[in-house]
Amino acid sequence: MNSTILQTATRYLLPLLLVFSIVVMLQGHNKPGGGFIGGLIGAAGFALHGMAFGPNATRTALRADLVVVMALGLAFALVAGCLALASGQPFLTGLWVSVPFPGFGEVKVGTPLVFDIGVYFVVIGVVMTIVLSLLEENA
Amino acid sequence: MNALPILPVLIPLGTACLGMLGHRSLRAQQTVSIAGAVALALAAVALVARTATGEILTMDAGGWSAPFGITFVADAFGAIMVLLAAVTGLAVVVYSVASVDLPRKRFLYYPLTHVLLAGVCGAFLTGDIFNLYVCFEILLLSSFVLLSLGSERGQLEGAIKYVTLNLISSAIFLSAAGLLYGTLGTLNMAHLSVRAAEAVAEGNGNAVTIVAMLFMVSFGIKAAVFPLFFWLPASYHTPPFAVSALFAGLLTKVGVYAIVRVFTLIFVHDTGYTHTILLWVAALTMVSGVLGAAAQTEFRRVLSFHIISQIGYMILGVALLTPLAVAGTVFYIVHHIVVKANLFLVAGVAHRIRGTSDLGRAGRVGVYASAPLVAILFMIPAMSLAGVPPLSGFWAKLILIRAALDERAYVYVAVALLVGIMTLFSMTKIWAEAFWKSPEEKEGDPPTKADRTPMGMLAPIAALAGITVAIGLAAQPVFEFSVLAAGQLLNPEVYVGAALGEAFVTPLQGGVEP
Amino acid sequence: MKLLLALLVGGLFAAGIYLIVRRSIVKLIMGLILLSHGANLLIFASGGLVRAQAPLVEPGALTPETPHADPVPQALILTAIVIGFGVVAFMMVLVSRAYRAVGTDDTDEFTGTDH
Question: pLDDT value at position A44?
């Protein structure tokens, strides 16, 4: 597909969608959202890019190797679960620490957040692998 | 160590993760993959050693106590299944190094194999019916990709059938799990056992039986029992031999495991109905599988039909539901996983030597003439499958037939014996056509030195054959373990007490509202 | 409301099975999607239908306000949707590859592995 309207719109939409996806992921602990939905929104942005500019351009724009993105996501999720094991609690038990964050005061950071970040990356990796292979199939 | 019941899930996932991180280097992938498989095997041995004392290990994920959180429970049956999965996984991974082609290996073959193992081990260890569904989906998704990797026409056709039937099965499983929650208000399998007994006591047994039948159909598709097995022989002979061996050894057995678990732990109130159906299913599965095999002339298709007929024996044990019969089922699964995976691995070597898997064609050279060791290594699992003493299959069949005799189920004894003879016939057919016969006219190029079977392929076959012989010669310890596992399966209060605490054991006492 | 949902679940299952037994692999995917939707709705309906609040615990409180909806069926459906999404996405790639390899979307032609 070679549409100027889609390409121009994508240039503005992709960064917006990516920022929105991160917001949705971060607010997921207490409100609707989370790693899966955030990852899907991010992947939707890249999928849009793939439709507008073609799969090769998207692979370049992604910069990262999708397999490594998936692996990192899986690693994040596993580490989040195993930290509890290391501290003698059952697998996946949530551990929380408060860290001072300039401008926000105390921010609570915990393993569920790490897990969500892992899910985010796995979803982006898996969805983009499938979307790009479908786009390449029909190119 | 409270992490032990979850380790067999975490180790393969971690291995897959490392394999993906280093996916550009084939050497790194292979090293990580073999190391991960060895680690999984060690964890499984530790698990079996712990449960062999009769102890049941549990772990509540996230610290959410049962029945609210997801519980992992390792009893003797679950532990021995994990050990078998680990052994098969290790053999297949080693075999893959020398046998799977480069493009597949580049496309995440090893990580997918380990994700599959994680799903299989998770299914064996979970104590939550919905988590069982999730584990099924993990192993199914990775098996879908492993099956279609390479995109050859036959593979894709087989994959469509495999995927469709398995997704229908999953939809039924999901519906059944939802209805079960609606009826009994819990998803924890131990709690379900308690609640099902309460529901039956309150006269609500029919609703539970309906859900039980949904589970039977869903798990029946996955275990490939009569009449739901048609996806299996249409797909199992299409992927590389290592993948077939992994599937043949483990995937249908996950279905059998699920049937054994739910029809000993939860749905035991109306055995006159549910287990009679299972009895019929067992006999028809045995017969239709072995008859299907007799009509086939492709090495792996013959073996695929034999998977089906062997599943029948395992179901027979659950259907009879006596201590000896269930012990027979456990013993049979132990024997079968090792033997079946090995037969598919040998099929790969035979294909390599002969240049074809078609039993009707002569191939370029007889296996016995050029590689007698391979022929002997085929003979061990093949004869064990048919039940020739003193190999493992003989004892497995002996226990089941003895249990059936005790129950005066003479028809099923006759069927089991007849199917054993037909299996022997089938195995000798393969022996005669693929291994013994030397072609009169050479077909294709004669094998060169480069065609010699690599040690990496022979070693796992020899190791699995060694296990088969060892189970046959030292059947007593395996039998004792099977009896222990069967004892736990037939006394759900042991499982319930371990998973939920003693307060739940006596029905109608200490029930917590959801 | 319960009757309506029951009819809807039945309708989804019927439509799904009808599409699966058609001869086109594209309709096969549609059928599987409908089937999984039917299963999800069945979980929702069998979890019990009540007019109630979302099962969220307000800051400072220890329990959610009653009456509240049962969160378990919702969690199950969410999980099932995620899995269904992955499976359907994979199925799309598989069907498109199979269409290319076999040259038709007629399932009657998919007989290469039957003999």
Answer: 94
Average pLDDT estimate for B267-291: 92
B446 within a domain of the structure (yes/no): no
Q: Phi, psi at residue C106, to the nearest 5°?
A: -85, 115
- Cα–Cα dist B366/B356, whole Å: 11
- Contacting residues of A for C98, CB less than 8 Å apart: none
Residues of chain C with C-beta less than 8 angstroms from the C-beta of A126: 86, 89
Residue burial B377-391, b: 16+ Cβ < 10 Å; e: rest: bbbbbbbbbbbbeeb
Q: What's the CA gap between C50 and C59, in Å, rounded?
A: 24
C82: in domain = yes
User: In whole angstroms, what is the distance from residue B487 CA to residue B54 CA?
Assistant: 10
ipTM of the complex in this document: 0.94
Q: Is C17 inside any structural domain?
A: yes
B159 touching chain C per CB within 8 A: yes
pLDDT at position B505: 67
Among C39, C43, C101, the residue with its CB nearest the CB of B151 is C101
Q: How many CB atoms lie within 10 A of CB B440?
A: 7
* Confidence grade of residue B468 (pLDDT, cut at 50, 70, 90): very high
Cβ of C93 within 8 Å of Cβ of A138? The answer is no
Band of residue B284 on the pLDDT scale cut at 50, 70, 90 = very high
Interchain contact, A134 vs C92, CB within 8 Å: yes
Domain count, chain B: 1
> Min CA distance, B430 vs chain C (Å)?
17
Between these two residues, B8 and B63, which has the higher pLDDT value? B8
Residues B303-329 have pLDDT tens digits of 999 999 999 999 999 999 999 999 999
Nearest by CB: A68 against B2, B3, B21: B21
Tell me how far apart the alpha carbons of residues B206 and B391 are, in angstroms, rounded to a whole number. 44
Confidence class for position B155, pLDDT limits 50, 70, 90: confident
Q: What is the pLDDT of residues B477-493, one digit of tens each?
A: 999 999 999 999 999 88
Q: Do B158 and C113 touch (CB under 8 A)?
A: yes
Name the residue range of residue C37's domain.
2-50+69-108
Nearest-by-CA chain C residue for A134: C93
Domain assignment present for residue C104? The answer is yes
CATH of the domain at C79: 1.10.287.3510
Report chain B residues whose CB lies below 8 A from the CB of C28: 160, 164
Residue B514 pLDDT: 33
What's the CA gap between B303 and B427, in Å, rounded? 9
Cβ pair A90:B108 closer than 8 A: no
Q: Tell me how many residue pairs between chain A and chain C have CB atoms under 8 A apart.
A: 17
Residues of chain C found within 8 Å of residue A130, distances taken between Cβ atoms:
89-90, 92-93
Helix (H) or strand (E) holding A107: strand A105-110
- Distance from the C5 Cα atom to the nearest Cα atom in chain B, whole angstroms: 14
